[in-house]
Amino acid sequence: MFSSDPNAMGMLIRKLESIAFLSEEERQAIQNLPIRVQALRARQDIVRDGDRPSQCCLVLEGWAVRYKLLSEGRRQILSFHIPGDIPDLQGLHLHTMDHSLATLTKATVAFIPHESLLDLTTRYPTLAGIFWRETLIDAAIFREWVTSMGRRSACERIAHLFCELYLRLEAVGLASEHRCEMLVTQIELSDALGLTSVHINRVLKDLRQRELITLKSRNLTIEAWNELTRTSDFDPTYLHQRRPVA
Amino acid sequence: MFSSDPNAMGMLIRKLESIAFLSEEERQAIQNLPIRVQALRARQDIVRDGDRPSQCCLVLEGWAVRYKLLSEGRRQILSFHIPGDIPDLQGLHLHTMDHSLATLTKATVAFIPHESLLDLTTRYPTLAGIFWRETLIDAAIFREWVTSMGRRSACERIAHLFCELYLRLEAVGLASEHRCEMLVTQIELSDALGLTSVHINRVLKDLRQRELITLKSRNLTIEAWNELTRTSDFDPTYLHQRRPVA
DNA sequence: AGGAACCATTCACATAGGTTTCCTCTTTTG
DNA sequence: CAAAAGAGGAAACCTATGTGAATGGTTCCT
């Protein structure tokens, strides 16, 4: 399938506009990127550790994760990705994958050749800066995760992650009123936060009892945003979103 | 002081050449960057969380750290920086600091105006790609740290960090034969690895007893490289260095 | 609709790593 | 060069989180 689908790139544009200003010409240039759209099953690898991909993957629908595998079956989830994200943008200048990328849920993705993206960055230096910025925000999120894993308690980590994901979903129009889908199992949460699923379960129970959140069949409601951000030390600056957040 | 110092930029060039190829013209362009060299005391902030800097900081001598402060005096060190590093390169496209940068030891740094760097990236798109790559490697290191903090034991984390720092120092000519300076206290190690200094001390004792390392008055010798990399699951791919490593 | 596979939940028990405290050895600095 | 500050080291004790195992509830195939 080609870029004829008028909406495929809408998600990417919405995402980029959440972190930078795009001119009409730049929006057009993005719309004209050649893409190949593909539907994927849940829990399917897209690129693997060690691969040398020649295209980037844009998430259109569903969630994806990046992860590393360690000895003895240990797994670390490095990031969650939602529609509008390009989880392997770093591939443009880092030629060997140092981790894997997979779908979490059933998903639709679009593949964009590196070649076309590099050409775009040459023709539109401002867009190059915006894509660069996107990878820098990715890094800023890793820094925040390092901070969580290093110095925050289990409870703070979970609360912090929920705040982050809510704001990211809201920025691309996939959440509002402190409600969003939370398409991750407790096992996935544990692999992302460096905990066990048993402990995730304990802490979720506590967060529910304190009436900070409601979480049922993949639907999260943050019942007390201010208290949740306070207890988890959450400050959205690191997301570097364009519009100031409540 | 201006770029008249013929050696100030040598460190940056050596660093960039450890991750990419530079043409003679590009080397010249870098040499011509205007810089202001400054000597700093140990443990001195260079840029603070929330600042909006207009220049980047290149480390010439000594070590630096990036860190975040949390409530109740908690601190998380996000990265260690050695000569040749530009710890706040992300400032080029991320205008508000989401963490602080400070010296660890007495240090010499060079400040380069964002303006000059942005101009350089416009005139030399290949150099833009190389600086972008540098920030992507920075992110790759964060991913590895997330993995360490999430799924590696205290012993594995320390061993992994030593391997990483050794290779980075070696890449810019500041280490060889599995020996290097390790200009960090046990407290700083603990704040970087999400542990306490007491536990760092316990684990170092163990690593010494197992004759994997020697660490005395800031001098580290890795006595058994292969075993150390094996026990810590260390794979240097994530450093994306140009030359293959032993 | 029925089963297989996955997920959430809970319990009893185990441990890696944290806390507090104290002492000694270096390093810095006046 | 001596005092002060900082860093390494270590013991006793504590706790947040891990382990393993069992049960019932969901979701997804066929």
TrEMBL record, chains A, B:
Matches recorded under CDD domains: CAP_ED
Entry's Gene Ontology BP terms: regulation of DNA-templated transcription
Keyword line: DNA-binding, Transcription, Transcription regulation
Domain HTH crp-type residues, every copy: 152-226
Domain of life: Bacteria
GO molecular function: DNA binding
Pfam families, alphabetized: cNMP_binding, HTH_Crp_2
Name by which UniProt lists this protein: Anaerobic regulatory protein
Origin species: Methylobacterium dankookense
Lineage of origin: Bacteria, Pseudomonadati, Pseudomonadota, Alphaproteobacteria, Hyphomicrobiales
Gene responsible for this protein: fnr_1
